[in-house]
C-alpha cells in the first residue's frame, strides 16, 4: 500500500514505530525501517544508564544514529521531546538538534506543545528537508491546527488506549482519530494507541487515519531489548490485568508489580499527582522494570493492545501481519 504518509516519509508501509526511551536502539529502529516502516530512536536509546551531561547525551545519540545508518539505508527518525517547563532553558534539546542536523537524520518524531521554540525548531527542520511527525501527548483540534500551521508534515492522534504517558483527556483511540482528522486542513493523520493487530489497523483507517504509529506491538518483538522475563509475562497478559493510576502529568498504566500496586494504593488514598510522579520515579524505574526485568522495583508500561499479542515475532513478520492485507486494496 502506498499513500500520502508513505510518499512524505519515503517508506513502503504507513507504519511508524513510536519512540520508547531505553527500549529502542539502532537494531530495533533499523529492523522496522528495513521492513518498510519507519523506526524511531527514543531518549536514552541503546543505553543502560542515564547521563545528566547534555553533550554526552547528544553524543550517545550520535553513536546510535550512526549504527542505524550502518544497518539500513531506509528512512528513520529521532524523537525530539523538548522540555515543556523550561522553554528558554532547555539544556538537552540544542545539542541533540546539532547531532540530528550533522548526521542528516531524515525525520523527527516531535512531541510537545505549540510554542515559540517549537515554531523555531520546525523552521530549522524544514530548512534542512527533515520531515516532521508531530504528536501531542494531549491531542486537541487547537494544537493540531497550530502544528500544521507551523509546518508539521504528519500529525499523530493518540488515544487513551496507548502505552507510555497517557493523555489528560481520557478519549480512546476510537474518539480521538476522527476528532483530529476533522481538525487538520491538509496533512495526513496517523493513529496511535492500542493498535496491535490488523483489525485495529483497519478500524483506524476507516476512521480517517492514513497510517498507524505503534509502540507496544514492537516491544513484543524478537529484536526489542526489553527483558525476556517481561516479554514472557506480557504474553499472558490482557488489558484487564493492567493497573491504572494517576501520576504526572495525568495517568499511567503498568503491568502489576510491587511498585505499581503501591502507586494504585497511594492514588486511592488521595496522594497528589506530584507525589505519585515522585514515587513512580520517571524513566529510571521504567528502565529497571522493562530493561532490567525487575517488575517489582520498576514498572512495566504497555498499551491496551497487549490483549491481542500472543507471540514474540520478528519485526518483519509483525509489520507484514499488520499491513500485508492492505496491498490488496490499494
Ligand atoms: C514503554 C513505553 C515508552 C514510551 N516512551 C516514549 C518516548 O520516549 N517518547 C515518546 O514520544 N513516546 C513514548 N511512548 C509512546 C509511544 O511512542 C507510542 O506513542 C505509544 O506506545 C503508542 O501506543 P501503543 O503502545 O498502544 O501502541 C512510549 C510508550 C511505551 C509503551
Structure overview:
By secondary structure, the chain is an alpha/beta fold. The protein has helices at 4-9, 26-34, 54-71, 93-102, 116-127, 141-150, 173-183, 198-206, 216-219, 228-235, 258-268, 273-280, 282-291, 315-323; strands at residues 15-17, 40-41, 77-80, 107-111, 131-135, 154-158, 189-192, 212-214, 243-246, 251-254. The strands form two sheets. An eight-stranded parallel beta sheet has the order 1-8-7-6-5-4-3-2. Strands 9-10 form a two-stranded antiparallel ribbon. The protein contains 14 helices and ten strands. The protein is globular and about 50 Å long.
Topology:
Blueprint: H1 4-9, E1 15-17, H2 26-34, E2 40-41, H3 54-71, E3 77-80, H4 93-102, E4 107-111, H5 116-127, E5 131-135, H6 141-150, E6 154-158, H7 173-183, E7 189-192, H8 198-206, E8 212-214, H9 216-219, H10 228-235, E9 243-246, E10 251-254, H11 258-268, H12 273-280, H13 282-291, H14 315-323
Helix pairs in contact: 2-3, 3-4, 6-7, 11-12
The protein binds flavin mononucleotide.
> How is the biggest beta sheet arranged?
8 strands, parallel
Helix count, DSSP H or I runs of 4 or more residues: 14
Count the E strands. Answer: 10
**Share in β-strands:** 5-15%
What is the name of the CATH class of the largest domain?
A: Alpha Beta
- Give the CA-based shape: globular
For the termini, the CA-CA separation is: 6 Å
Low-confidence stretches: none
Q: How many independent structural domains?
A: 2
Look at the structure and give the mean pLDDT. 96
Radius of gyration: 18 Å
**Which ligands, by name, code or SMILES, are bound?**
flavin mononucleotide
- Helical proportion, percent range: 40-55%
CATH topology of the largest domain: TIM Barrel
Order of helices and strands: HEHEHEHEHEHEHEHEHHEEHHHH
CATH superfamily of the largest domain: Aldolase class I
> Taking strands numbered 1, 2, ... along the chain, how are they ordered across the largest sheet?
1-8-7-6-5-4-3-2
Amino acid at each position: 500500500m502506498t499513500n500520502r504518509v508513505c510518499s512524505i516519509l519515503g517508506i513502503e508501509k504507513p507504519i511508524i514505530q513510536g519512540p520508547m526511551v531505553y527500549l529502542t536502539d539502532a537494531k530495533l529502529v533499523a529492523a522496522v525501517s528495513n521492513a518498510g516502516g519507519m523506526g524511531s530512536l527514543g531518549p536514552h536509546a541503546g543505553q543502560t544508564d542515564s547521563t545528566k551531561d547534555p553533550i554526552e547525551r547528544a553524543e550517545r545519540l550520535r553513536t546510535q544514529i550512526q549504527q542505524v545508518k550502518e544497518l539500513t539505508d531506509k528512512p528513520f527518525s529521532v524523537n525530539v521531546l523538548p522540555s515543556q517547563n523550561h522553554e528558554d532553558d532547555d539544556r538537552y534539546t540544542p545539542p541533540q538538534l546539532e547531532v540530528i542536523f550533522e548526521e542528516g537524520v531524515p525525520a523527527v518524531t516531535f512531541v510537545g506543545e505549540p510554542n515559540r521554540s517549537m515554531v523555531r525548531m520546525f523552521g530549522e527542520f524544514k530548512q534542512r528537508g527533515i520531515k516532521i511527525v508531530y504528536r501531542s501527548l494531549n491531542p486537541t483540534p487547537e494544537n493540531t491546527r497550530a502544528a500544521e500551521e507551523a509546518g508539521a508534515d504528519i500529525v499523530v492522534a493518540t488515544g487513551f488506549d496507548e502505552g507510555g504517558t497517557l493523555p489528560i483527556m481520557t478519549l480512546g483511540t476510537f474518539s480521538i482519530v476522527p476528532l483530529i482528522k476533522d481538525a487538520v486542513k491538509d496533512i495526513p493523520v496517523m493513529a496511535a494507541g492500542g493498535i496491535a493487530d490488523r483489525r485495529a489497523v483497519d478500524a483506524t483507517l476507516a476512521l480517517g487515519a492514513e497510517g498507524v504509529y505503534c509502540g507496544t506491538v514492537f516491544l513484543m518483538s524478537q529484536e526489542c531489548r526489553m527483558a525476556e522475563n517481561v516479554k514472557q509475562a506480557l504474553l499472558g497478559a490482557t488489558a484487564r490485568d493492567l493497573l491504572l493510576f494517576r501520576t504526572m502529568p495525568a495517568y499511567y498504566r503498568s503491568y502489576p508489580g510491587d511498585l505499581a500496586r503501591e502507586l494504585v494504593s497511594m492514588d486511592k488514598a488521595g496522594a497528589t499527582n506530584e507525589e505519585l510522579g515522585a514515587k513512580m520515579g520517571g524513566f529510571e524505574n521504567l528502565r529497571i522494570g522493562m530493561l532490567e526485568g525487575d517488575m517489582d522495583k520498576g514498572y512495566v508500561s504497555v498499551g491496551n493492545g497487549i490483549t491481542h499479542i500472543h507471540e514474540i515475532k520478528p519485526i518483519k513478520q509483525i509489520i507484514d501481519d499488520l499491513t500485508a492485507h492492505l496491498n490488496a486494496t490499494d
